[in-house]
């Protein structure tokens, strides 16, 4: 039996053990083909089955119909920061963005290289400690789209209520909370996520786009045009086959867990365990995030000193809890509780936090 740690890295991050075990079993001989899925042509029937299943499972789990297209694109979520404005922001138009953290800022920076940007809401002046209320997000009626980041991986915030974009297409970076709870995904004209958190290993972004939105694409470079990939079901060129294979296994695992309703129940319990300890000693575990904006996926807090943080991280590592260090730009502790983290992992962190405070409080 392999020794498995509880892995709290923010991404790439923990994958379901069941998925890794299937991948391991199938690695050298994919279902009797005599070769691995990494070595099979992306035009083969074996791979085609995987590819098609990954697309349809994604839609099934997220309750989306034929009016949406699932794409698997190279370049991670960061490539989407460019592709969104390249496709939808026309000359003379303005795109609206809500700035809720480092990743939103990067998306804004990229869009500014392509066209006009209006910051429709921001929590920058408050160190990104909250998500602006829907009533504080002012989206111009003629904006090309409104872009939000549903979960802020570094700041530890998450939208619990979406802004009302009216007739303006709503676009979301859901890299760190896609498929983590029940959600009306049809509110979005396009949403995307780097695979390496809730979906699979690194190597691609899942982009889900409403078909009618594709009619609005501007002509551009072939590989950066959503229509190229939509028309060929992400097989215009060689897709990241192995990543997509693991995504398919993860989506099957998710379906087996009861889909979004099942995973929401698990994720709710996990975050309650950790925030519960924070709330029992808020002066010791200082969480900078406003209560109504707390992320279920990335819980951030500081301890009374950097020395104590180092000690906490060392004790955690010794106890088999790894990847708890906060992002280098903000420091502190970050507990990432993506879908594949079992409840036991969240309980173990919560127990360590409580005992650490007792010993060092
Ligand atoms: N958006 C968010 C919310 C993220 O957390 C990240 C990566 N952690 C990115 C975008 C960038 O993703 P990638 O590394 O796949 O480009």
Q: Sketch the topology as an H/E string, one letter per element.
A: EHHEHEHEEEEEEEHHHHEHEEH
Oligomer status: single chain
First and last CA, distance: 37 Å
List ligands, each type once: 4'-deoxy-4'-aminopyridoxal-5'-phosphate
User: What is CATH's topology name of the largest domain?
Assistant: Aspartate Aminotransferase, domain 2
What does this structure look like?
Helix 4 links the parallel strand 3 and strand 4. By secondary structure, this protein is α/β, with parallel strands linked by helices. A seven-stranded mixed sheet has the order 2-10-9-8-5-3-4, with helices on both faces. 36% of the residues lie in helices and 15% in strands. It folds into two domains: 239 residues, Type I PLP-dependent aspartate aminotransferase-like (Major domain) (Aspartate Aminotransferase, domain 2); 102 residues, Aspartate Aminotransferase, domain 1. The model has no long low-confidence stretch (mean pLDDT 97). It is built from ten helices and 13 strands. Helix 2 packs across helix 7. The two termini are 37 Å apart. The structure holds 4'-deoxy-4'-aminopyridoxal-5'-phosphate. The site of 4'-deoxy-4'-aminopyridoxal-5'-phosphate has 11 residues, from helix 3. The site of 4'-deoxy-4'-aminopyridoxal-5'-phosphate (PMP) has 11 residues, from helix 3.
Entry keywords:
361 residues, alpha/beta, Aspartate Aminotransferase, domain 2, Aspartate Aminotransferase, domain 1, 2 domains, 7-stranded mixed β-sheet, two-stranded parallel sheet, 10 helices, globular, binds 4'-deoxy-4'-aminopyridoxal-5'-phosphate
């Amino acid at each position: 039996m392999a020794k498995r740690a509880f892995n709290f890295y923010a991404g790439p991050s923990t994958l379901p053990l069941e998925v890794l075990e299937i991948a391991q079993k199938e690695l050298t001989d994919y279902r009797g083909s005599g070769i691995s899925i990494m070595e099979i042509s992306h035009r083969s029937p074996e791979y085609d089955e995987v590819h098609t299943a990954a697309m349809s499972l994604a839609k099934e789990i997220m309750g989306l119909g034929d009016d949406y297209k699932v794409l698997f694109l190279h370049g991670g979520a960061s490539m989407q920061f460019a592709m969104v404005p390249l496709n939808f922001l026309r000359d003379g138009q303005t795109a609206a963005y809500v700035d809720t953290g480092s990743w939103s800022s990067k998306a804004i920076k990229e869009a500014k290289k392509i066209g006009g940007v209006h910051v429709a809401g921001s929590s920058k002046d408050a160190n990104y400690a909250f998500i602006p209320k829907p009533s504080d997000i002012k989206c111009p009626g003629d904006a090309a789209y409104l872009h939000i980041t549903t979960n802020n991986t570094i700041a530890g915030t998450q939208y619990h209520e979406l802004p009302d974009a009216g007739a303006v297409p709503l676009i979301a970076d859901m890299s760190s909370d896609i498929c983590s709870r029940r959600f009306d995904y049809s509110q979005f004209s396009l949403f995307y996520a780097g695979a390496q958190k809730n979906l699979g290993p690194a190597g691609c972004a899942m982009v889900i786009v409403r078909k009618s939105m594709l009619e609005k694409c501007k002509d551009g470079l072939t590989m950066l045009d959503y229509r190229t990939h939509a028309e060929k079901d992400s097989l215009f060129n060689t897709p990241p086959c192995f990543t997509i294979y693991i995504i398919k296994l993860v989506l099957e695992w998710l379906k087996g867990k009861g889909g979004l309703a099942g995973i929401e129940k698990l994720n709710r319990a996990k975050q309650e365990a950790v925030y519960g300890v924070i709330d029992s000693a808020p002066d010791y575990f200082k969480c900078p995030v406003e209560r109504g904006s707390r992320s279920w996926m990335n819980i951030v807090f500081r301890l009374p000193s950097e020395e104590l943080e180092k000690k906490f991280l060392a004790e955690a590592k010794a106890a088999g809890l790894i990847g708890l260090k906060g992002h280098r730009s903000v420091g502190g502790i970050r507990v990432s509780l993506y879908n594949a983290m079992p409840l036991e992992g969240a309980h173990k962190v919560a127990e360590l936090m409580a005992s650490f405070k007792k010993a060092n409080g």
